[in-house]
């Protein structure tokens, strides 16, 4: 269902908890990732005299949606550059696929610190409404940078639970679209998914929440498409979470 009419949207304060994805739902983090990749690769290309120069098209063709190290290898291969794969524990100074990927993570953190990131106003209005009503809320993110993003946005203290990529890796939880992370976050909050709400903007995230048996799965359409979100399992789709407040 795609519906922006607040008279027909469910009252999210009536549920036991609301669990939010981070990137694309609470914060426009993709822009920071793009900036970090661009900064890191422009410096690397200059040092190694790699041509042609890095462009944002490279991000969409070789990096977007891929695991960090796979993206590095793919982009370097597009320039006929091969380096050893290395190990995830490699330092950011290492000239390996993993080292370069870890270097990007340092740049990502630096961009966050220097430029910050602002949460979506509509999303924070909903958070305000839920907190005023005493509804527990959580963040459920695949990113290992979730804590840093929340801190940079100044909203870390707003959430009772943060289930992120670090916790998921530590506890051997399967990533979205498997239901593990949403279900575990509900457990951490002490609530039943069948009486709770999940909010997602990605197809894999919607599938994860639907598989977890959440009472309401809100799809936030930031460009994926309302019909696709609904097919993935969203029970309601909005363009902005302010629809639940206005």
Mean pLDDT: 92
Percent of residues in β-strands = 5-15%
Residue ranges: pLDDT <50 for 5 or more in a row?
1-7
Class by SSE composition: alpha/beta
Instruction: Write out the strand line-up for the largest beta sheet, numbering strands in chain order.
Output: 3-2-1-4-5-6
If you had to describe this structure to a student in words, what would you say it looks like?
- By secondary structure, the chain is α/β, with parallel strands linked by helices.
- Helices cover 44% and strands 9% of the residues.
- The protein has helices at residues 30-48, 56-63, 68-78, 97-115, 121-132, 146-152, 165-170, 180-189, 203-211, 226-232, and strands at residues 18-20, 137-140, 161-163, 197-200, 216-220, 236-238.
- Helix 1 (30-48) packs across helix 4 and helix 3 crosses helix 4.
- The longest helix is centred in the N-terminal third of the chain and has 19 residues, at 30-48.
Short description:
By secondary structure, the chain is an alpha/beta fold.
Throw out a few tags for this protein.
10 helices; disordered N terminus; 6 strands; 6-stranded parallel β-sheet; elongated; single chain; 9% strand; alpha/beta
Summarize the SSE layout with pairings.
Layout: E1 18-20, H1 30-48, H2 56-63, H3 68-78, H4 97-115, H5 121-132, E2 137-140, H6 146-152, E3 161-163, H7 165-170, H8 180-189, E4 197-200, H9 203-211, E5 216-220, H10 226-232, E6 236-238
Parallel strand pairs: 1-2, 1-4, 2-3, 4-5, 5-6
């Amino acid at each position: 269902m795609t519906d922006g009419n607040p008279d027909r949207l469910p009252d999210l304060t009536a549920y036991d908890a609301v669990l939010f994805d981070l990137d694309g739902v609470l914060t426009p983090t993709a822009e920071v990732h793009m900036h970090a990749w661009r900064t890191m690769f422009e410096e690397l290309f200059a040092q190694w005299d790699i041509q042609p120069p890095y462009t944002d098209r490279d991000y969409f063709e070789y990096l977007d949606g891929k695991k960090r190290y796979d993206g590095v290898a793919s982009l370097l291969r597009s320039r006929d550059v091969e380096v050893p794969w290395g190990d995830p524990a490699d330092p950011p100074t290492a000239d390996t696929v993993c080292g370069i990927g870890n270097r990007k993570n340092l740049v990502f953190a630096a961009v966050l610190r220097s430029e910050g990131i602002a949460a979506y106003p509509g999303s924070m209005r909903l958070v305000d409404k839920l907190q005023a009503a005493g509804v527990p809320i959580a963040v459920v993110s695949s990113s290992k940078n979730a804590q840093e993003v929340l801190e940079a946005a100044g909203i870390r203290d707003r959430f009772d639970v943060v289930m992120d990529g670090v916790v998921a890796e530590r506890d051997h939880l399967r990533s979205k679209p498997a239901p593990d992370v949403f279900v575990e976050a509900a457990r951490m909050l002490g609530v039943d998914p069948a009486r709770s709400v999940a909010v997602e903007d990605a197809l894999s995230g919607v599938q994860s929440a639907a598989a977890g048996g959440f009472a309401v799965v809100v799809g936030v359409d930031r460009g994926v498409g309302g019909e696709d979100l609904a097919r993935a399992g969203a029970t309601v789709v909005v363009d902005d979470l302010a629809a639940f407040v206005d």
